[in-house]
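job 3f2a | input accepted
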Amino acid sequence: MFMKHVIRLALLATLLASMEARAETLPLPANLIGAASDAGEALLIEADAREAYFTLAINFVTQKNQAFCGVASSVMVLNAIGVPAPPVPEYDPYSTFTQDNLLDARSEQVIPAETIKKQGMTLDELGGLLALQPVQVEVRHAADSSMDTFRKEVRGYLATKRHFVIVNYLRKAMGQEKGGHISPLAAYDAETDRFLILDVARYKYPPSG
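job 3f2a | predicted structure (209 res):
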């Protein structure tokens, strides 16, 4: 009987500790809606293009340093698609893409790992990195298209199984701090014309749209 009480007290202490501890992210600008808010949850439920969300959500990672947004986004998408992954010694005998094993001798020919660590990567370099894997990659630049075309193409991808979209965007244009960033899109709600961005810099901003 005594042991049961001890276990219950231990569980209670753990629950209380987890409720007290919270990540201190930057506040979202007023034009964005946090995915974990009531409004964000409602948007996701009502979104007509959200097929990508579920597999991305279970493979969500935080970029391991402030320059690895492209690497983290690639890892999420490749694991979500189910591409054959390299072995991971600490997970032996299981294999998965990680931010430590994505970059190899082949990727050095696209963009050196040291360059990524210093300045991140461009959209074209991201496309080249992903093209090393057995996936079909299409790179689209905003200057070569229109918003209507972008909405139509991305909506179609997000509504189709095993199709994913990674965007390279300017944080300042969304009212956020700093410059260029890369993260996967997970859903689109046509009625409100909002995309859900699974921001891999989760220490900075939460997923939002």
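job 3f2a | Confidence is low (pLDDT under 50) at residues 1-9.
job 3f2a | closed
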